[in-house]
Amino acid sequence: MDGLSWVMVIVIGGVAGLIASRIMKRNHSLTGNVILGILGAVSMNVVLKSALGLQFGGIVGQFIVAVIGASAIIALFQALRKNRA
């Protein structure tokens, strides 16, 4: 997320969260989509940068990372809920 303003991070995160919820077939509120997208973008950036040494710049790169990260977070929450039931 280097070089992007917080407003752009929120916009990218919101759209990425919306797309990730559609990919994973889960409906969340707009606020939930923004939170999932931002968490996904941040967590996936940390994983890619620290574990693999990769860093994606620009809006398109961050968008792809955010969608993948948000999808991973949705899958994680689904797995945790499934184990509780």
From TrEMBL:
Q: Does the keyword Transmembrane apply?
A: yes
State the family it belongs to: Belongs to the UPF0410 family.
**What are the subcellular locations of this protein?**
Cell membrane
What InterPro entries does the record point to?
Transgly_assoc (IPR007341)
Source species, please? Phaeobacter gallaeciensis
Q: How does it sit in the membrane?
A: Multi-pass membrane protein
The transmembrane segments are 6-23, 30-48, 54-77
Name the principal localization, coarsely classed.
Answer: membrane
What is one cellular component GO term in this UniProt entry?
plasma membrane
What protein am I looking at? GlsB/YeaQ/YmgE family stress response membrane protein
Which keywords are on file for this protein?
Answer: Cell membrane, Membrane, Transmembrane, Transmembrane helix
Q: Which domain of life is it from?
A: Bacteria
